Amino acid sequence: MTERVGSGKVRKTQRVYRILSIDGGGIRGIIPAVVLAELERQSGKRVHQLFDMFAGTSTGGILSLALSQPGRDGVAHWRASEIVDLYVKHGPEIFDRSLLHRIRSVGSILDEKYPDTGLVSVLKRYLGETRLSEALVEVLVTAYELEGRDPFFFKRRKAIVPSGEDDYPMWQVARATAAAPTYFEPLKLETRSIAGYYALVDGGVFANNPAMCAYADAHRFEEGADIVLVSLGTGQLERPIRYDDAKDWGQLEWARPVLDVVFDGVADTTDYELRQLMNDDRYFRLQTTLIGNDQMDDASPSNTRALVLRGEDLVSEAEHAGFFERVLALLSV
Fold it and tell me: Distance (Å, rounded) from C-alpha 303 to C-alpha 294?
């Protein structure tokens, strides 16, 4: 890339590599979806036309896949505003369990909280049989492999190799990254590896905010590029875990709260690290505070409406702070 300077001289400039990273957070994915819908409205472009890479964990992974799914004429099949509708309309289907499941799981003590029937149905409905290799931009989606005890990354760059060994249907990738422990059972993903399958859970156990993973990937594969990174959160947890409660908790009581602590702590740590590594004019983190209900699985109409409103409030705050103006100026380079 070059730019013309004084006296007609031309100098080389760095190629800009633009990354969008989206946190995990279940139904709270409504918040970044609302932000992205506003980004599309202001830019007049689809999200995939503004970025070179999407990185996502859990609900962020679902957003990354849906917004990079090809439609007609090389344009994404879904607009961000339509993905907001996915959560609002189909959230109750995803987070639904029958009375029989409640009894069998003994209130989620002996089994996952939700069967994956509704989740798989919605993912197939929205993502169809589109494969990871077909994504319109580079995609990085996180998961964790239980039997090998390793972080696992679904990447378009691995899916497009001639062997096709790592080219999975998008809906399966989304199902793997959404398998939050205690909420959904792990995904047994058949593969050509020696083991014959991977046992995968939500990548939030190590990277609920996948921005650092994306940054590292870009440094390796986009050497010399000027990296611009936009990171979207799904809401900061503010509800305290009080000492008088936690001091007497055992394994059963800690099962669900410790997951929230891990997800939230990992996200904040990643934000801290990137603020040390990147300049303020290249790294942008948009996050909001959740007041009251912060549950990942409350898909009730009242809560999804509240999340839409929280997203709209965040958009208004970001607009006031000049976030969209500054970001779009860089993304349009």
Answer: 9
The pLDDT of residue 6 is above 60: no
Tokens of 45: 């472009």
Closest CA to 20 of 52, 67, 59: 52
Enter the pTM of the model: 0.89
Phi, psi of 211 (to 5 degrees): -60, -40
CB atoms within 10 A of CB 97: 18
In contact, 154 and 132? CB cutoff 8 Å:
yes
Q: Is the distance from CB of 134 to CB of 116 less than 8 angstroms?
A: no
CA distance 54 to 230: 10
Q: What is the pLDDT of residues 104-146, one digit of tens each?
A: 444 444 447 899 999 999 999 999 999 999 999 999 999 999 9
In angstroms, rounded to a whole number, what is the distance separating the alpha carbons of residues 214 and 121? 29
**In 314-326, which positions are buried (b, 16+ CB within 10 angstroms) versus exposed (e)?**
bbeebeeeebbee
Q: Which amino acid is at 54?
A: F
Q: Are strands 226-232 and 197-202 parallel, antiparallel or unpaired?
A: unpaired
Q: How is residue 133 written in tokens?
A: 């290799």
Kindly report which listed range (7-16, 47-56, 285-294) carries the lowest average pLDDT score.
Answer: 7-16
Tens digit of each residue's pLDDT (9 = 90 or more) over 260-288: 777 777 888 999 999 999 999 999 999 99
Rounded to whole angstroms, the Cα distance separating 302 from 293 reads 11
Name which of 60, 3, 48, 19 is nearest 178 in CA terms.
Answer: 60
Tokens of 223: 């050497």
Report d(CA 318, CA 314) in Å as an integer: 6
Task: Write out the two tokens for 308.
Answer: 């839409």
Tokens of 229: 């990174």
Confidence band (pLDDT; 50, 70, 90) for 251?
A: low
Confidence tier at 292 by pLDDT (50, 70, 90): confident
Please tell me the distance from the alpha carbon of residue 143 to that of residue 205, in angstroms, as a whole number: 8
